[in-house]
Amino acid sequence: MKDDGNGLKSVDRSSSARIVSVDQFRGFAIVSMIMVNYLAIFDAAPHWLKHAPGEGFTFADLVAPYFVFAMGLMYARSYHSRAGRFGLHQARIHFLRRYGLLVMIGAVMSAVGFGGVHIALHVSPETVARVAGKHDASSWAYSVLSWGVLQALGAAGIIALPFIRFSFRGRFFAGCLLLIGYHVIFKLMGSGWVLRFAHGGPLGALAWAALLLFSTVLSEGFNFQRKSKAVFLFLTFGIFLSVGGFCLAKLLPLAKSLVSAPYVLVSAGISSLTFLAFFLIVDCTRFRFPHLNVFGRNALIIYIVHEIFVALTGSIVDHSACRVRVVLGAFCVYLACYLLACLLNRRSVYLKL
Do residues 168 and 6 lie in contact, with contact meaning Cβ atoms separated by under 8 Å? Predict the structure, then answer.
C-alpha cells in the first residue's frame, strides 16, 4: 500500500485483475442498450425507453453514459498497468490506437448502414437559445447524421488521455473545464454542430470526455483496502453530481440531444449510484446477476452484432406492431446476443483493442 500524494492510501495501481462488479455493470449497460435500441423502433414502446426528444430525461438517455462511465472505471487502471509494463510512451500509443480504432469501427458501421442513428430531433428554439444564446432558426427539426456510440466513446477516450496522469482532483477539474469549454464553443459556433449529429457529434465528444474523467475519479475507490471508503466515495460523488446537475438545469437545458452540462452531470451522478448498487451486491456479497458477466466481457462484439439485428429489424418489421410482437422480438434479439456471448466466452474469444 502507498500514498498517492493526495492523502489516499491505495494499493498498487498497476494491478490488472478483473473487477467483477465492473464486468457486471458493463453487461448491464449492453443489455440496456440492446433493449432500448430495439424497442425504440416501435410505436408501442413505452416513453421511458425512448430518448427524450428535447429537454427531459428518460432511462434511454442513461444508456450511452453507462457505457462511457464503465469505460472510465477501468481507464486509469488500464493505463497505469500498461505504463508500468511497457513505459509511458507505449501506453500513450496503445491508447491512441485503441480509441482511434473505436472511431474507425464506428465510422465503418455508419458507412454501411449499421450503428448510425437516423432520426429526427425536435428541439425548441427556446431550449437551444438557453445554450447558444440566440435563435438560429424558427423550427428545430434536424436530420441526425451518423455519429454513433463507438465514435463518441473513441473520441472521448482520446480527449481524456492528456489528463489521465493528473491527480483525482485534477481529473475532476479537467472534466469541469471541458464542460465549460464545450458550452463556450457551442455558443460561438452555433447549435448546428451538435444538433445535426447523434450524441453531439465531434464537438459533443468534449462533454463525453468530461463524463469519462468524472468516472476515472470514482475508479480511485478500487484502490481502497476498506470497501466502506469506496462506498462513501461512490455515494457522495453520485449525490453531488446529480444534485449539481439538477441545480444547473435551472440555467441550462437538461437535454441529451445537446449533451448539455446538466445532462452530463446528472448522468454521471446516476451512473455512480447505479454502479454503487452493483458494487455492494456483487463485490461485497459475491452475488452474480445471471448473464451479465458474459455480456460485459465481450461488450464490443455484442454491441456490433446487436446493431446489425436492430438495423435489419427496422427494415423488415412493421413499426406499428402490437406489444406482444414487440416483446417477442426483443426476447429473440436478446437470446441471440446472449448465445453468441456465451459461445465466445466458452471459447475464450474476446475482442480487445
Answer: yes
